[in-house]
């Protein structure tokens, strides 16, 4: 998701991508050459990427798969200092796309009979969700995964926001946070609503989901994602860095204004300790891996039919935009052209990512902006899936 201001970062970074009504989504399954539709032009997608760079994004890189045909596009630069162009194999931080991986593991555990979505949070994490009106005995795992728990979002805490999303980030970029610390920040605040009464995006939900995976398996959520998803799908560019602030290579740089303003100094925020996001948004990947992951998920290679039905059973995120719905770590949006896309988006310092697919897996798109204050990711989505591109406008 493109993050224009630190206020939006506080409420949505590591979180759901909502750009001009387009929510982040999923990837596509290649069809055989015999089944492939006529070749589609990606000129509109390239023009939308070019427009994002004119709007201020340092660089864009993405890959689309349509009926088995692969298209790679890029614009701008990976490194403002050297001028190196972005490359299709470059890795980048994917923020809240991590949530789909975590939800997939939870649903696999349900399929194995090791937990139930109707289990309460307190059953697995006694006493962890308690205080200021929070009560883990009344919140289910399903409500964590579809953001109907009402649990306060720790990234909306003002003190945390000042330390992590503003200029103080430069002093705290290497700080380590434990999951219990992040949940503790949320517990300082009252719930947003009674469990099940409404919908509100909360990164705390998925920090807790990661803790449940560890309690149920005896292994970290990172180890379970690696064993259950990354290795079987051969996602060699995807990793869970834990507390390692370095980016694996190849990769470019990530940039932020660290401000609510879209002008002023641009900071290199590439190095950061991703424990500030944890199981809500720590992962690193690239466009090819994201397409493969979502294609495999949506075409039934990771979950049995019953769990896939659970994952794709959705709730309305915003009554004013009923076409945007949230499942279990998965978003569906009906685009203006009528195409329905599934997936997720993720924003974290200097990195805004979308990964999308049609439900049949035939048409997918994954792309990344390496700046968090500008650019229109919705325009790229609409260009790829609807063939509409922003009108050309002069460079700034």
From TrEMBL:
Signal peptide extent: 1-28
Name of one Pfam family that matches: Beta-lactamase
Keyword presence, Cell membrane: no
Spans annotated as Disordered: 240-262
Protein transport found in the keyword field: no
Coiled-coil boundaries: none
Swiss-Prot/TrEMBL keywords: Hydrolase, Signal
GO-annotated molecular function: hydrolase activity
Domain Beta-lactamase-related: 51-371
Record-linked PANTHER family: D-ALANYL-D-ALANINE CARBOXYPEPTIDASE, D-ALANYL-D-ALANINE-CARBOXYPEPTIDASE/ENDOPEPTIDASE AMPH
Descriptive protein name: Serine hydrolase domain-containing protein
Species this protein is from: Streptomyces crystallinus
